[in-house]
C-alpha cells in the first residue's frame, strides 16, 4: 500500500463550532510527518479521527487504504500505534512492563487474550530493541515519565503498526530524558520497514530530521504543509504564528524557535 492517509475536504463540527475545516492532506508510505499547531488548533481532533475514535462531519477520510464507513475500526486500531501521555492514565499502574508491551499485540489495555511464550518473548525483545532492557519485569507504576513513554512506544511497536502516532511524546520529560526518547524515535525511523511516523509537538526542536514533512495547523485549518526545509524557517513560522519569532539552529540539523 502506497498511501497511509488521505484527508479529502475533511471537516469536523461540534455544535456550532467547526473544529477542523476542509482539510486536504496525504501521507505516503515511507514519509514521516510532524504536526505543529498552537493549543486548540485541532491536532488532537485530527489524531482521534485517524484512530477511528471520531468521524468526519463531512469529507472523505482514508486511513491505511480503507475509507471510513467501509473499514473495521477495531482492525484499524491494531495497525495504528498510538503513544500519548493520555494513554498512560488508562493503563493499569500495577501491571508489569512486559505485560503492557504485550498488550500492544491485542490493542487492548491489559492482556485478556491467550498468548504464547513466543508472544511474550517478542514483547520483551521489542523493548530491548528500543533500549529498554533494564525496564523488563518492573511494575509500570515505578517507572519515570521517560521510561513510561518508552514502554508505550514498545507497546505500540509490538503490533507492527503501519502508522505510529507520537502525540506530544516528550511531555513532562526533562532535558536528558527528552533527548534519550528522541534518539529512540530516530532509531525507529532507521529500522527497515518502519511504520510511517506522525509526531505532534509544540516544539520544533523535537522535529528530528527524520520528520521530512511538516504540517502547520491553525484554528482548524491547514495553513501550510510540505518539506521541513520550507516549513521550519523564521519567515514561514513568523507568518504562521502571526508574531515575529527567532530561530536557533541546534546540533543535528534541528531548529528551536522563540518569540522575538
Ligand atoms: N467535543 C467538542 N465540542 C466542542 N468543542 C470541542 C470539542 N472537542 C474539541 N473542541 C474544541 O476544538 C478545538 C480544538 O481542540 P483540540 O483538542 O483538537 O486542539 P489541540 O490542537 O489538540 O489543542 P492542544 O494543543 O491544547 O492539545 C478547541 O477549541 C476545543 O475546545
From TrEMBL:
**Molecular function GO terms recorded:** ATP binding; ATP hydrolysis activity
User: TM segments?
Assistant: none
Kindly indicate whether the keyword Nucleotide-binding belongs to this entry.
yes
Q: Which residues form the ABC transporter domain?
A: 5-244
Could you tell me which InterPro entries the record lists for this protein?
AAA+_ATPase, ABC_transporter-like_ATP-bd, ABC_transporter-like_CS, Metal_Ion_Import_ABC, P-loop_NTPase
Q: Which UniProt keywords apply?
A: ATP-binding, Nucleotide-binding, Transport
| SUPFAM superfamilies in the record | P-loop containing nucleoside triphosphate hydrolases
Q: Which PANTHER family match?
A: METAL TRANSPORT SYSTEM ATP-BINDING PROTEIN TM_0124-RELATED (PTHR42734), MOLYBDATE IMPORT ATP-BINDING PROTEIN MOLC (PTHR42734:SF6)
Recorded family membership:
Belongs to the ABC transporter superfamily.
Descriptive protein name:
Molybdenum ABC transporter ATP-binding protein
